[in-house]
Amino acid sequence: MASYGAASTVLSVITSFRERLAADMRRVGWNVINVHPDPDPRRFLRSFITEPLVADLASIAGGPHTVASLETTLVSLTPEVTEGVPRTAALAIGTTPSWAPITEMNLIEGRFLEPGDAAGCVLDQWVARKVFGPGPAAGRTIYTLIGGKATPLEVVGVAEDPFRIRGRFDRDEGSGAVRNIVVRLMEYKNIYVLRDTLGAGRPILFGLLSAAPGVEPAEAVKGIRERLTEIGSTARAWDRKGWAQRILGATDEVAGIASFLWVAILAITALMAAAIIAIAVRGRYREIAIRRVEGGTRAAILTQLLLENAIISVAAALPGFGLAALAARWLETSVLGWPIPVRAGDLAIILASGVALAIVTTFLPAHRAASLSPIQVLARP
Amino acid sequence: MIRLEKVEKVYWEGLPAEVRALREVDLHVGRGEHVAVLGPSGSGKSTLLHILGCLDVPTRGRYLLEGEDTSRYSDRELSRVRNRRIGFVFQAFHLLERETALENVMLPLVYARRRDARRAASDALEKVGLSARLHHFPGQLSGGEKQRVAMARALAKDPAVILADEPTGNLDTASGARVLDLLGEAHARGVTLVVITHDGEVAARAGRRVWIRDGRLQEERIRP
């Protein structure tokens, strides 16, 4: 029973994790192509991004484009950095209003930046929650350390966090400053401002392209890379869809390996059950001999023992599945924070596996018992 | 009804521990006969009963039951013969301890896929005087009652032959007499009876007595 419960819970968690991650990865904009300088300092100087270059590359992708300057900054509710005032490290992205439609950004509060929003900003949900807590952020003022001075900005909108899966596990960490800012951009812990707000003279460090309808982003990236090679640029171009799919592929592999957990749980249980069944069947030799004397064939005895253990296995599964449902509910509300549905299909797989293991482990002792000579068994004292 | 032709049973044949339990046994038991098989311990009585009951097969020779040679029957065929044609009554009763008296009597009927198994078992228990003990477990019954349950189990399937191995060996005199009466009643209804016994009184009830010694049928006497 406990094994059924444990196996069902493990399978449900693995399945729900995979689904959750897949849903999250679908929200990162699968039509988007990122272009940025090579993070390797040895090639950085040959990989500058310019607005005309991005526009040229966008003509290959066939869709709209935008560019961005980047700066790491601190976000605070007060202009003074004093003890006890919470500050949040964020990446400031100086861009254009077209960033939101190109990235298929979903705003949960307010709107995205419009021309003239020089004193406005849009926060990623993660930043908004860090600074303002669970309450509304739109319409409130924050201070950012842009260009080394505290700059007040009005929050005009909050962008939904695509990575819901991290909701419960996200921890403050101090490694942000040492990671490449382009990598940090994909963490969705950003503050979006217009380019002029960040500073008109700042270099462009990011180009955002969108593949035209019907154009596969991966194919567009091939053309973009060929163009970059032609002009001698070492700038990097990659599509988010491929990136997301590689992550999901890796997750599938890990999930596949993790799936052996529930198989292992059932297998270990089956081994223990096999020993118990062997002893139990041995204790029934006399009964089996009497059944044989009274007309039970070897096949009938074998079938009876297999059926008995299959029924016991099914009977153990039902409360086990109840336990799994309770465990899944507890994990959902107290530990993981995402829905963990216990699906009938998963339970059917586990039930079938459990019954099959019960039959396999019963077969040998049952066959031996059915093959014994009843007269020899009954002759024993 | 029963015909053994040159039947031999050898255990561990060809090995140093070889045992020749039966040697060229010829025996004919007619329909409705009551035969007692007597002999000392280790003489081959039980082996003979096992072969007659299709619980074992001869090493050599033929065993014909109602004209059919069972010597080369498969397990399924032997099981069917035991189930349909032969009733067993053992000294140790051999009842299923975790089943009620009714369920014990139903056992062969269930294997025979009889739809009226419950009713037939109930009737059989009533005939042996245990209608008040249908739902008792063997542990709740006396020795005599247990043997009557075994008798009911043998009779319920309406067998052609009843094989009884020391049926009164574990019973007191009164209970033993009751069991012998029940066997007698079955015989009177035309059931062929083969009883293995040490008990002269039990043997005396038989119409015919057969002695077995060292695996050989030594003597056969017919009661006038």
Question: Explain this structure to me?
Answer:
With 381 residues, chain A is of the alpha+beta class. Helices cover 52% and strands 18% of the residues of chain A. Chain A contains 13 helices and ten strands. In chain A, strands 2-3-8-5-7-6 form a six-stranded mixed β-barrel. With 224 residues, chain B is of the alpha/beta class. Chain B has one domain (32-59, 83-222): P-loop containing nucleotide triphosphate hydrolases (Rossmann fold, 3-Layer(aba) Sandwich). In chain B, 34% of the residues lie in helices and 28% in strands. In chain B, helix 6 (173-188) links the parallel strand 7 (161-165) and strand 8. In chain B, helix 3 packs parallel to helix 5 and helix 4 (117-127) crosses helix 5 (143-156). The two termini of chain B are 21 Å apart. The mean pLDDT of chain B is 91. The A-B interface holds A 286-287, 289-300, 373-375, 378-379 and B 46, 50, 53, 55-56, 75-76, 79-80, 82-84, 88, 90, 92, 94-98, 107-108, 111-112, 153.
Major pleated sheet of chain A: 6 strands, mixed, barrel
Strand adjacency order, main sheet of chain B: 6-7-8-3-9-10
At the fold tier of CATH, the topology name of chain B is Rossmann fold
CATH class of chain B: Alpha Beta
Strand order of the largest sheet of chain A: 2-3-8-5-7-6
Q: What's the gist of this structure?
A:
Chain A is an alpha+beta fold.
What attributes does this structure have?
heterodimer; A: 381 residues; alpha+beta; six-stranded mixed β-barrel; 52% helix; 18% strand; elongated; B: 224 residues; alpha/beta; Rossmann fold; six-stranded mixed β-sheet; four-stranded antiparallel β-sheet; 7 helices; 10 strands; globular
